[in-house]
Amino acid sequence: MRLPSTPLPAVRHSALGDRERDISIPKDVVAIACTALLLAIVESFCECFAQTHASQATRFLRRATRTCAAAWYLTTSLPCKLLAKAACALRAASACLRITAPATHREMAGTNKIIPILASYLVKRRRCRSMTDDAARHEAWDAQHAWGAERARRMIRDLGGFYTKVGQVAAAGSQMMPPAWCAALAETMDAAPPVHPRVVRRIVERDLGVRIADAFDEWDDEPVATASVAQVHRASVDGTPVAVKVGLGRRRQFSKDVDAMYRQAVLLKALKMDAGLDLPSVVAAYRELVKDEFDFRIELSKLDRFSQLIQKDFRNFITTPAPVRHLCSERVLTCEWLAGPQLLDVFRESTAALPRPQAKRFGSWRRLYATLHKCWGAQIFRQGEFHTDPHPGNVVLLEDGRVGLLDWGQTKVLPPDKVDSCAECVVCMARGDAEGLARTIEASGIAELENPSVALWALISYTYFDTRWTPLAGVNLYDVDRSLLARDGFRRNSPEAFPLIRIAFLFRGAQARCGVFDLSLVDAWLPDALRRLGRPVRFSHLVSRCRAATRWYVHALAKKLPPRLVRVFGGRTASKLWLAQRA
């Protein structure tokens, strides 16, 4: 049986006003297009509603498609012909699009993977509205998060690029994201697919202008870390171990990914599924942060600036890798090798115990993070520029007890007036001045709320700009019907607010993994904020700093004293430290 060949009514088309022509669309082309669209919709909805059985549903559809393709040649059934032709048309269109317009194909692939997740959450939200039992509601959301997190993990693994960066942000926000999402996306920290060694060698030799054998004594083709923008290889120069960061040249792909993510964020905000965070502004701000990551000469200049600050005030506790300048270029950055486990590796252990070298130097996780907080406060209020990506993969616990900070390509420069506004907010938060805090934020334009109030500004500020736990910190961002922020969320976020929120999220998530919940980022920033505003630092702040420094020297002295003198002069803490060192 053949399809009718009678054309549809002709369509009048006028071009330049002097000629007219007829365009006839055969009925079978329309039928095939409609069937192809229906097939794509059915496949997406099967993945959405089947959830845990999504892979089985997809395999069933593919088998049915292949069966219909075979039936095309063995039968005269019209539905089989239409379905087979539609499947062939989809496959051919996808292959052609991948070759002729890879960016468009990539965006369509990402959208096709996101839509089932989004649709499933919309359905779950509708179903949970009628639930009155909190236990049943939590159980339903836990199952939804487990399914959605696994789907998101596979999407990020398949697409990479900017989606990996988004996964890193989600994985580090353990007090804001569901546990299933944090666990599923943890591999995005350093588990990007590696590039073939031949390609890496070609990039290094072309960028440096010398052969690898002439530039390095040793070169390991196996990368020690892989990311979306670059990967790191271990080598040696004049017998000294070095880390070589090699850029993969994906600037255009990243730009297209950010544009696609922006359109998806607009869709989420229109559907009120952005949890009140104003995701389009967040994505736009992130676009500004990542643009410098593709030129390692910019990162080298940033590394020099921040190294001076850290060596001046934090050299006993924090360090940065020293660059090997004659082996640095646009896509190659060679620095000294910082030996020690990454903070991410420590978190993967069941105990997440503080390593012995850091225990000798800092004494506890709390003091280690307090030192990191002060370092970031110095960056913001003294230099006006700060590292915006302190995730656990960029923090190394060195063998001498210090902490090494890596990856200085992603930083944010704050205008002087925004630095002053941030300092004023810190002072108000430290003193508990909620009204002054609300006035400062609204006057500075850092952010805008849908329904602003003093109480809401205070709650949001302590949640997003501090690391202590608040009632909003443990909220389910996706249960938007019961989320305070979703009902009265951000009308507008700003490029200055998002990086500050990001570092607070990353520090809070890392502290939670170590059992530190009451350490305040704001309290650590207060002395530098007061100096920025030209106000006197209270004596109590100086006493606390002197007390911390004295405690560190007592700990350093404890290992040289006999136990009796330690108990007399060092106190209980030093005694315990001495006994732990002698054990």
UniProtKB/TrEMBL annotation:
InterPro entries: ABC1_dom, Kinase-like_dom_sf, Mito_struct-func_regulator. Residues 189-439 form the ABC1 atypical kinase-like domain. It comes from the Eukaryota. Pfam families: ABC1. SUPFAM superfamilies: Protein kinase-like (PK-like). PANTHER family: ABC1 FAMILY PROTEIN, PROTEIN KINASE SUPERFAMILY PROTEIN. This is ABC1 atypical kinase-like domain-containing protein. It comes from Pelagomonas calceolata.
